[in-house]
Amino acid sequence: MRPSVLDPLFAPLSTLPGIGPRTGDFYARLLGRESVEDCRVVDLLFHLPHSVIDRRHQPGIALSPQGGIVTIRGHVDRHQPPPRGKSQVPYRVFIHDDTGELSLVYFRGKAQWLEKSLPIGEEVIVSGKIDWFNGRASMVHPDYVTTVDKEEEMPLVEPVYPLTGGLAPKALRKAIIAATERAPELSEWLDPELIRRQSFPSFHESVMQLHFPRDAADADLQTPARRRLAYDEFLAGQISLTLVRRKLRKAAGIPVHATGNLSARIRQALPFSLTGSQEDAVAAIVKDMAGNDRMLRLLQGDVGSGKTAVALMAMAAVVEDGGQAVLMAPTEILARQHFETITRMTAAAGIGVEILTGRNKGREREEITARIASGEAQMIIGTHALFQDNVSYHKLRLAIVDEQHRFGVHQRLSLTAKGAAPHMLVMTATPIPRTLVLAAFGDMDVSRLTEKPAGRQPVTTAIVPLERLGDVVARLKAAIAEGRKAYWICPLVEESDVSDLMPAEKRFELLQREFGKAIGLVHGRMSATEKDAAMLAFKNGDTRLLVATTVIEVGVDVPDASIMVIEHAERFGLAQLHQLRGRVGRGTEASTCILVYKSPISENGQARLKIMRDTEDGFVIAEEDLRLRGEGELLGTRQSGTPGFQLASLEAHGDLLEIARKDAALMTERDENLESERGKALRTLLYLHRRDEAIRFLRAG
Ligand code: ADP
Ligand code: MG
What we know:
Blueprint: H1 24-30, H2 41-45, E1 51-54, E2 69-80, E3 91-96, E4 101-106, H3 111-117, E5 123-129, E6 131-133, E7 136-140, E8 144-147, E9 157-160, H4 169-181, H5 192-198, H6 203-211, H7 224-250, H8 261-269, H9 276-290, E10 296-301, H10 307-320, E11 324-328, H11 332-346, E12 353-356, H12 362-374, E13 379-382, E14 396-404, H13 409-418, E15 423-428, H14 434-441, E16 445-449, E17 459-465, H15 469-481, E18 485-489, H16 504-515, E19 519-522, H17 528-540, E20 545-548, E21 561-567, H18 574-581, E22 591-597, H19 603-614, H20 618-629, H21 631-634, H22 650-670, H23 677-688, H24 692-700
Parallel strand pairs: 4-7, 10-15, 10-16, 11-13, 11-14, 12-13, 14-15, 17-22, 18-20, 18-21, 19-20, 21-22
Antiparallel strand pairs: 1-9, 2-3, 2-5, 3-4, 5-8, 6-7
The structure holds adenosine-5'-diphosphate (ADP) and magnesium ion.
The site of magnesium ion (MG) has 4 residues, from helix 10.
């Protein structure tokens, strides 16, 4: 049970002021959760400011620097509403101090409100950004306007939080302040010696310091308070991994005795022979599974390196021994695709292949789960629906998780720890550096697919400014007339986002005029059936140009697609561009990738596109990306930090991870069930970071 001292932090987020049906979705998006029902107060407490606005600068109007944030104390002289019928002209209010005059500018300003908050003759305080033009100072939409008697209501040092479209900074700030009021004092779980060495404040103090900064330096990633919270998070992760893995290893693996007869038949049915590194990976897996310990292996291989075939051979080994294997994909589309590939390749071997996703409901679902429970289903493909409580397996021996570049493995490791003790294989397309593997997965054995399958054509990449889009379309028309197939990728756009971007739907409409029936569309907001239909039409060649958002990024395989246009390429992370480009160059034709960018583009942005042009090597791209942007971006996760981590960033806090690893190992060795004073406090830490699943293993022993 979660200690009751944490209850206030685990109350639903909707118990905070200003979080209701209208804003709930924005908060869910901000906090990276599926819906607001999944959000707890603690999630907002851990939403930290990325910078600080200092409003203490009060130089007077005349000495205010261009573009600077200043606070001005002045007298209101006059109001100048826009002339009748000219609502595009802003409403201006003029104020002055001893040094000069300032015009406050309000577009679509509401006269009533402005007259009330800025009464003529009154002394007021305003704060915002100063803009000089032709020797006149103005301030467009001041951040704060207040009368002198309410001066202290204006925060002079103000934290700035990562935002998402639709949320007002002031409302967010209010909710966060309410969240900090719920933060309890907690018994210390850290080693006193470490606290001394690192000058860590307590948990409560750290939270308060970060949300109530005293100056700009408090937003730095290296303040003791920030490092403390980062360390806490690493430590919770490492302890939890240690416990989960201890449990996994303890539950002795059931050795799998592969006979090789099914694999042989599948090999015959494959339209290719395995590469050397695919063979090595299969051999390592078969060997792992034959032993008494459970396998915990990571299969790393670039996009298109052929991980599915390795998964298939591993599953075949299990089926040969009378067992079942599951393959879990991150998306519905991908699960369907795996299912088709695997059904095709195993047809000759007469294996029972099944698919189970969230889409299977009612009778159909019952029939499928019955076949899984009876063992009639031998290879089972699906999404996370595979591990829901009411799915039971006959003889589950192997669980394969196709992560691509998403990280949710932690949870999934523990999910499979629930029932039998299947061997585990995690597949990922991200060339994750070793430190990240450790942070996200703990000590796992690793296989790498380093060879590209034979017959792969290199992809030529070109960088083109948006102004030349006409040429791109013309060339595309010619290519499609020759019978080629192309993807056209648009960035995902939120409706609330500033819309100079071209959302997929709008682009689709424009291109439809050129391409007529040959064009298809697939994006995330379509239903699963619609998505499938669009993908199928493209695969079959009914459509030859597919406009898509990044939904196609993960794993879609249409080998004869040989052109990819990526619009607003500057908006994508390199890892994502690499994943996307991996969709072409899979067939026998020479392929092209066109990166269309919108000017002006930063130097860094140019450098990033050039990397894409100059290499196809995922590891080189990942390293360069890490150098240019930091690992959070590399993995295409939320704006800051490291995948799976909310507070810690490997780049900034990497030194702490190593300490946390040792600390976790030591603690779990000395105090196996976390029962000492410090052990109990550590349990609280695990709950605080939602590592509850690990605690289950403590009690179970
Ligand atoms: P990923 O590693 O990205 O999941 P896939 O498993 O989807 O890659 O494989 C990409 C494509 O390469 C598929 O069309 C697959 O049939 C093909 N392929 C896999 N292994 C080989 C091989 N050894 N030789 C030739 N083609 C292969
Ligand atoms: Mg794949």
